[in-house]
Amino acid sequence: MTSDAGLTSQDTDYARHIQEVLSELQQMQQPPRLVTSPEELEALERESRQRTDRLGSLLVGPHLQQALDADTFQAEQEQLVRQWPKPLKNDGKVTVMVRTVQGLAVPVRLTYYRRQGQRRAGNRDAGVYAGLVLLGIYDRCTPALASEVSLCAAMLGSLDEAQAVLADRGVELDTKTVRTIAYRYAARARLEQQIERTVFEDTVAGRRVVISSDGGRLRLRETKRGPKTKKGRRRYTGAWREPKVLIVYVVDAEGKREACFAPFIDATLKGPDAVFALLRSYLQRLEITQADQVLFIADGAPWIWKRVPLLVQA
Q1: pTM of the predicted protein model
Q2: How far apart, in Å, are the Cα atoms of 203 and each of 262, 279, 291, 312?
């Protein structure tokens, strides 16, 4: 990822840039522009969004820098470094471009900790930016941006579509970066589930809960053993697999899904026992025993119904 919209790693004069954007917005306001066609209205909206998104990123930058420079936060960084699995050494202050949810990358200065034995001029990705870790910033993306990228990657039909939608919103990332962010975000989310640190804000107490599971169809790109192609690429097969999918949601007295309750949807390729273990984990943390009614809905697949009594007992 590279910086854009005029910001570089050496440019930390946020006040000047903020004032520039405010002046541009003031010019757009006085006098109002005469819009006479759908195309002109779309262009006006895009121009307005570009400037407001830029302003939003510029406002986040100083807050990030303030947090990283705070004495209490410095102490937390040092504690994290001491607890790191491998020894780390303070390599001094460096400037890092952090991309915000609005799409603009803003520069911040913070301490880089390199691994013992790592060359000073080596790959910085092998070390740790402790301050960014504590703020939940991975892959040089704020948490809000990583969440949005992952959501697009999960909802849309392909990573190319996700990249195109993000680009239309002003977030310029290539497809490879979208894939990296989404996969690593998913890995962190799964780790949070495994150590049971995630907190479910919605409650099922006194409500009618629907649980369902089914098999899907997914085609995976699996690497083949053996020599590479003439162009140096690894050979692969496009094998079809059946993921086991689960969903938990809430319905009203008429059986209609309640929009105020965000459904829980998950899947696994590890088979029926794994998906029911995952479902059991969700239900326990939702405190499903407080629900008024629990309805299990599925087709007649034997692998589902022979495990339902065990789930109910658990």
Answers
A1: 0.70
A2: 11, 16, 9, 19
